[in-house]
Amino acid sequence: MAMNPTIQAPQAGDSVRGFVYALTAYLLWGFLPFYMKAVAHISPLEVIVHRVVWSVPIAAIVLIVLGRTAEIRQALTTPRMLAMACLTASLISVNWGIYIWAIGSGHALDAALGYFINPLFSILLGALILKEKLSRMQIAAISLVAIAVALLTWNAGGLPWVALALTVSWGFYAFFRKTLPIGPTQGFLLEVLLLTPPALAFIVYLAFTGHGHFFAGTAQDSWLLAASGLITAVPLIFYGNGAKLLKLSTIGIMQYIAPSMIFVIAVFVFKEPFDMVRMIAFTMIWAALAVYTLPSLMKGRAAG
User: Fold this and answer.
1) What pTM value is reported for the model?
2) Residue 298 predicted with pLDDT over 70
3) Distance, CA of 293 to CA of 218 (rounded, Å)
4) Is 118 exposed, middle or buried (0-12, 13-18, 19+ CB in 10 A)?
């Protein structure tokens, strides 16, 4: 999954078109668990390589139609940019793999938890790595999340590693992605282009060893794997265009749509266990998000 990509500089106010674009992206991400359940019998690695390969033509066509391929050509001849893109491509692959496994193995609730925690982890990263000063409200929010994670750890007898792995992999991806001076769709295409050679090699290996599902399993498997490009690239493209037309405060609120949908699907559709301890922990995390979000929202409205 690729929720909450690096936010590009938005315009001063919100536009209806931007809101529709962003809402479409978050709704698509919110329904993504249904696709992941449908491919749960396929190994996460095979799903990842097909997401990579089938995303390339979609992103490429969009950039060709928009006439924005110059950044890609420049990036492919810039060693430093290629090195950073290799790092971000590796991180997003890890994030995708964990997410695919989590949904397929009955840990959708943990996936939702990870994406709820993510914005606060990004703030913590900024404080630890960039030495950004935390406000009292931010410290309070991060402390609430830490207590909630400790509660879940005590209840389960171990760390909620799925949620933490998704949080950490996405947090570092977003952190390093900011260093790429390239647009969201261009950056996405660059990452999947770099991942394409090993992805194709693995698809060929699966075909020769008889372990692949593309044109070797059912027709439904082949169609689902081929559709992975649309499922991956389309919401990212919608998001990239929507973020440019919305205020940061608006995006800040909307980013909770997808994990909220995942939470509802996990509890009410997939029937994952949701005991009292988890309820308390999630309530603490929602309170932390309110503490973190409301001041910036109020500031944004005052500025508007």
Assistant:
1) 0.88
2) no
3) 46
4) buried
Number of neighbours of residue 302 by Cβ within 10 angstroms: 7
SS3 224: helix
Q: What are the two backbone dihedrals, phi and then psi, of residue 93, each rounded to the nearest 5 degrees?
A: -65, -45
Distances from the Cα of 63 to the Cα of 46, 60, 71, 199, 268, angstroms = 26, 5, 10, 22, 39
| C-beta neighbour count of 264 within 10 angstroms | 12
Cβ burial 38-72 (10 Å sphere, 16+ → b, else e) = ebeebbbbbbbbbbbbbbbebbbebbeeeeeeebb
Q: Is 253 exposed, middle or buried (0-12, 13-18, 19+ CB in 10 A)?
A: middle
Q: Provide CB contacts within 8 A for 111, sequence distance 6+.
A: 1, 33, 99, 102, 103, 162, 163, 166, 259, 262, 266
User: Contact 25/238 with Cβ under 8 angstroms?
Assistant: yes
Instruction: Measure Cα distances from 273 to 106, 107, 270 in Å.
Output: 10, 10, 9
CA-based nearest residue to 246, from 1, 25, 59: 25
Reported as a single tens digit per residue, the pLDDT across 126-157 is 888 888 888 888 889 899 999 999 999 988 78
Token duo for residue 188? 């996405």
CA–CA gap between residue 177 and residue 184 (Å, rounded): 9
Cα torsion at 218, 25, 180, 120 (round to 10°)? -110
Q: Minimum mean pLDDT among 65-69, 92-96, 181-185: which range?
A: 181-185
Instruction: Please answer whether residues 134 and 82 qualify as being in contact, where contact means their C-beta atoms are separated by less than 8 angstroms.
Output: no
Determine the residue type at 290.
A
